[in-house]
Amino acid sequence: MSGGGRDGMNPLRQLSLDQLRQRTSAKWREYPDDVLPLWVAEMDVPLAEPVARAITDAVARGDTGYAAGTAYPQALAEFARRRWGWDGLALERTALVPDVMHGVMEALRLVTEPGCAVVVNCPVYPPFYAFVAHADRRIVEAPLGAELRIDFGTLEDAFRRARADGRPAAYLLCNPHNPTGVVHTADELAAVAELAERHGVRVIADEIHAPVVAGGARFVPYLSVPGAENGLSLMSASKGWNLAGLRGALLVAGPAAAGELARVPFEVSESTSHLGVIAHTAAFRDGGEWLDALLTGLDDNRRLLAALLAEHLPAIRHRPGQATYLAWLDCRALGLGDDPAAVFLDRGRVALTSGVAFGTGGAGHARLNLATAPELLTEAVRRMAAAVTVA
Ligand SMILES: Cc1ncc(COP(=O)(O)O)c(C=O)c1O
User: Fold this and answer.
1) Closest ligand 1 atom number to CA of residue 324
2) What atom of ligand 1 comes closest to residue 248's alpha carbon?
3) Is 147 exposed, middle or buried (0-12, 13-18, 19+ CB in 10 A)?
């Protein structure tokens, strides 16, 4: 599928459907071969060359032991300085964690106790619900407001409910937000910090999608805003470079949370994959050029998707995201019920993620993963439109 010039650089144009179907990961194995899979957050890209080289070199050395050292936080700190103009990531305030969601659970253990409340902005990444429950905490929903942004009145009400029993509480912020692709502004994040401080709620920011911003958008790290000193953040190269199979993440603490971070058990950090750490380090350190080519390809795909929907499925409401490679589709006007993804799968043979699992506000919606070749994106929308026509 690769063309010359700019297209030749686009990682989303390198692999054919036949090549992708040979993959054994979840995206390509969950559904039968007649289904076009645009669901789970994996990308249809080859591994970035610097990452592939780092991994194959390690394998050639037999370097497959336990993770050690500070190369990963060092690479992230330099990436944060270059990309986000943030120089506040201190190596001594980072801990390796096996992956982002296990890092979220560790962070919850640091700042809350079993039975405590965790506030989330629904609709939101479904594992937030599952992992909070698995950590024996309880969810308090603060639905997103107008234009799918944080509604501060709703958030304050949720903070009050979360703290009503006088026990510690946390706010699991998704920055940028999955599934809407909203990038929170510096002002919004500072308002979050102020509100959290006022209500005694601790902020844990999941910033896994931070590298994947659209042209013109600017990611602001939560820990960089005034008032966020006791915050915790989870960062990873997993989404930016498609490394879910090479797991690893960093739990990063603001200056006032350093003491808590020090309580992360050694065993947790040691459970992080050494090969994962090598891959993530190479991505943040040497993967900038590859990332830029990806971001250009994703910008093209966001525009393509908007045009395809306007032409073939104008009843779907969709606001192109400022980050992530996920598109949140409001399908309520199609009259397909609470779970339009089920209809697109049954009648169109295209797999999206059902909106229902994203919590309150998710019914009638579906999430589409646009990190694929433009041809496959085009075919997916064609199939969705055919499914609706059949209806
Ligand atoms: C917001 C968010 N957090 C966490 C994850 C998963 O991260 P990990 O596989 O490192 O646990 C994802 C994956 O898509 C995600 O979108």
Assistant:
1) 16
2) 10
3) exposed
